[in-house]
Amino acid sequence: MKRRSVMFTAPHEAAVVEEKFDDNLSEKQVLVETLVSAISPGTEMLIYRGQAPDDLAVDESLAALPGMFSFPMKYGYSAVGRVIKIGSGVDRSWQDRLVFAFNPHETCFTAAIEDLMPVPADIESEEAIFLANTETAVNFVMDGRPLIGERIVVFGQGIVGLLTAALLVKVPLVNVLTVDRYPRRREASCSLKVAASLDPASPTFSADLADRIGESGADLTFEMSGAPTALDQAIGVTGYGGRVVIGSWYGNKPVTLALGGKFHRSRMTLISSQVSTLQPELTGRWDKSRRFELAWDAIRRIRPAQFITHRIPFEDASSAYQLYDCQPQDALQIIFTYGRSQ
Fold first, then answer.
1. Does domain 2-119+303-337 sit in CATH 3.90.180.10?
2. Which residue in 133, 198, 218, 252 has the fewest CB atoms around it within 10 Å?
3. For residue 342, what pLDDT is reported?
4. Burial label, 272 (beta-carbon count in 10 A; 0-12, 13-18, 19+)
């Protein structure tokens, strides 16, 4: 059997390649035909641009993403497909089931059933592909622990930033401000009913932000723009004893921070947040399954398919990466369509 996959072969080179594929199943495996998959613009653009550290494992927690961040490689972790074949030890109820998988962009794949999540009946496939990034947003909010009445600033309104803002505005009486340099993202952010979405390149940015959060600064700040300079800005707007959740992965881009002034006496907390694990303080009551249940519920409330700006046929995958690379201001979420019935 053959299948087609997106392969990153060198910086700024991503192509759809055909490869031999063994579709023989073990007892507990199934064969999935992909219907839609979503690009993760943060991590995938680091890979596309050659900015991911090549001495780091791709993801030690996901069977579908082995190896290191080195070319050539496959990547992707938001795929929705339909089970078209089941192993001898798999319950027949899995046949034809719509499932979510943390799997690279490819036309079909085999997976153990424990590595798949059935898509709830009331959630469409184009909503389901947001599960991974919605779980990430849930993780950021859990790590930030927003309190009633807090002043919160979110730097970066890419897809994960938008999802995070959408969750934060539901916290009682919080004042949520967002920051992004692209008008289209700020418009999407304002549609979520944030207090304001500001342009960091505006000459009045600092004054506008200070007017909104007051002299004491933000209580809680999230940095998820992927821009190293934004972390210094996030620290700068955070008040005494505040928290900064660092959700961005900068890859091998250097980060320079000015920690010799206000920060030195601020007693603020910098929080490293990454979705592969849970905050240690929560693991007595929370596990990944419980967090996924919360993410599915968040998808029902947010309806994130509203953020899809481009549906690109899988065979034209290279154009999607070029669009993110050269015209990021135009794209919120790009998804691949595989030309199959959903």
1. yes
2. 252
3. 46
4. exposed
